[in-house]
């Protein structure tokens, strides 16, 4: 953990990290906790502002970590897709415990959802792309969407989602799509 932390400081050319995220829990909770203790030590030494865990798809696992951690996870960073029912239960745990849920693969894993006529029609109504509408909707559901774009145009589009708001009625339409994903 210390080696990885030092490598990140070097790569990012900083002397402190905003966030340190465990790539995924280990198969055994005891191993996860051992890694977490090392992360806590780095935060206690002032090297990190907040800690997180990624690829954590079992709510029970997150709850165990939460219960045993001295410094609680501030962030969960997960693949956002139908296979895990879009982490509905896990996101509820995050909401109840003040953990920020970050999504990745938000676009990559959901091409069929983004092509659904209901979503495309709503995007047209708001004069936005389906990707923008989806990102905006998810931010209104307290999800921080990461985007891995390498296109300057897409970066601009992704950053421009905060100058409009999806109505609660339309959010409900999109909620329903997440409840009944294609396929
Ligand atoms: N914790 C983990 O295990 C893990 C795993 C994977 C990724 N991540 C992180 O998650 C972040 C997001 O990466 P991701 O791959 O998951 O991102 P993503 O949201 O799935 O986006 C990437 C794809 O979406 C396209 N895209 C982005 N904005 C768009 C827009 N406005 N309209 C249309 N297409 C758009 C990109 O194409 P263009 O390049 O052409 O725009 C690219 O093909 C990254 O920072 C990555 O480091 C974490």
Description:
By secondary structure, this protein is of the alpha/beta class. It has 2 domains: 1-104, TIM Barrel (Alpha-Beta Barrel); 107-183, no CATH class. It has 9 helices and 5 strands; from the N terminus they run αβαβαβαβαααβαα. Strands 1-2-3-4-5 form a 5-stranded parallel beta sheet. Helix 6 packs across helix 7. The radius of gyration is 18 Å and the shape is globular. 25% of the residues are buried. The mean pLDDT is 96. NADP nicotinamide-adenine-dinucleotide phosphate binds at residues 23, 54-55, 77, 104-108, 129, 131, 146-151, 154, 157-158.
Topology at a glance:
Layout: H1 2-12, E1 17-22, H2 29-44, E2 48-54, H3 59-68, E3 75-79, H4 88-96, E4 100-104, H5 111-114, H6 117-126, H7 130-140, E5 143-145, H8 152-159, H9 168-179
Parallel strand pairs: 1-2, 2-3, 3-4, 4-5
The structure holds NADP nicotinamide-adenine-dinucleotide phosphate.
The site of NADP nicotinamide-adenine-dinucleotide phosphate has 20 residues, from helix 8.
